[in-house]
Amino acid sequence: MWYDEYEKEVAKGLLDLERRKAVKRGVETYVSTKKQALRSLPRLEGLRKRAREIKEQSSRHLEDLVKQASKSIESAGGHAYLAKTSDEAQRRVAEVVGSGRLVVKSKSLTCEEISINEVLESLGKKVLETDLGEFIIQLRGEKPTHLITPALHVSREAVAEEFSKLLKRRIEPDIPTLVKTAREFLRSHFLSADVGISGANAVAAENGAVFIVENEGNARFVTNAPPKHIAIVGFDKVVPTMEDALTIVQVLPPYATGSPTASYISIISGPSKTADIEKTLTYGVHGPEQLHVVFVDNGRTRMAEDPVFREALCCIRCGACLFECPIYRILNGRFGNKYFGGIGAVWSAFTHSLESVAGFTYACTTCGRCKTFCPLDIDIPLLVENLRKLLSRKGFAAPPHRAIAENIRASSNPFGEEQAKRLTLG
């Protein structure tokens, strides 16, 4: 059954010409701009090697670093929670949201991982995505198809159609016009929201500082305008020091978007506060009165214990591997679920289930382009090969592969030919 579902998804990807047009445009633009960005950053080579060292070291001390970060956040006037599972994280976030009715969100893969939108909406909350790509796919009732560019598969013509439906007036498929339209619609919601939810690109354990990298400016509104800010953070995002976190956020932009640096890097180390009146510390000035950080394990410590799969924890979610992946391009983004590509197969296996990745793990050709273009040199093909071994042992062998293995056992060749029919060279 799992293989049948996988084949159906592949067929959808191959036949969807509208998605192919959008993905092709996005990939071509990214590859061109990234080359220019990398040429302009001579220090990047040293930074990315240092980033690899930081992530490797951190992966060996995940729980200790999360505990240290939690204490730092609490001492700075915030609240920290450790969630072992996705369900526990969902419950904790729902409790913190409380009676709040409108929730504005910035882009977060960890939020996607734990399906927090669906959970909050089931409780009667209105959840509004404010990242432009996330906003587009929310209107379309779809899921993201890329780690950084969630609406990569949606053409400008399709975006104009969605915006026209929303606003009940004709919106032209001109990209600057579409961006301005989204800005005008979303602007008022930031100030009327009860809760803002974000992810994080890094957290410094030494002082609990949360780093958020963005270009649009929506994350700053989300984390600053509502009275309550909730950051949902995977254990893997915690590194020892501020310097370490700054290294990560310097490496991310050129590989994620093709820009030398991001427009905004926010560092949040507590709720809004002042001591301007008689040096008495008071929380809640112009920014949130409350900061809540929910650290999510959900398979990460299990990944860290594995000598092979631990390497996946080095991923900084730049998505560069996807733009270079031939299968991702051919399938028009239909190469995973929540996490994408070869690295996404590993992540989904640990954060969701083996069965959920059985299909698209076998789609990977292990060509190695992902490793070549990964800023942290993660050996994704090796991880995929080991994941296939694990899947096979659990009974999730691809039927064509199983047939080849049976043929070899029965007739010593992959085609199942009888010995008598095989050509003898004299």
What's the alpha carbon Rg, rounded to whole Å?
Answer: 23 Å
CATH fold name of the largest domain = Rossmann fold
* pLDDT averaged over residues: 94
CATH class of the largest domain: Alpha Beta
Basic shape: globular
Distance between the termini: 47 Å
How many strands?
14
What is the number of helical segments per DSSP (H or I, 4+ residues)?
Answer: 20
* CATH-defined architecture of the largest domain: 3-Layer(aba) Sandwich
Unreliable stretches covering 5 or more consecutive residues: none
Structural class label: alpha/beta
Helix content: 40-55%
What is the strand arrangement across the widest sheet?
1-12-7-4-2-3
Brief sketch in words of this structure:
The protein has helices at residues 2-15, 17-39, 44-59, 62-75, 86-97, 109-113, 116-122, 132-140, 156-167, 175-192, 218-224, 242-256, 300-305, 320-324, 326-330, 341-351, 354-363, 369-373, 380-393, 399-411, and strands spanning 79-83, 102-105, 126-129, 195-198, 202-204, 209-214, 228-234, 238-239, 264-268, 273-274, 282-283, 290-296, 336-337, 339-340.
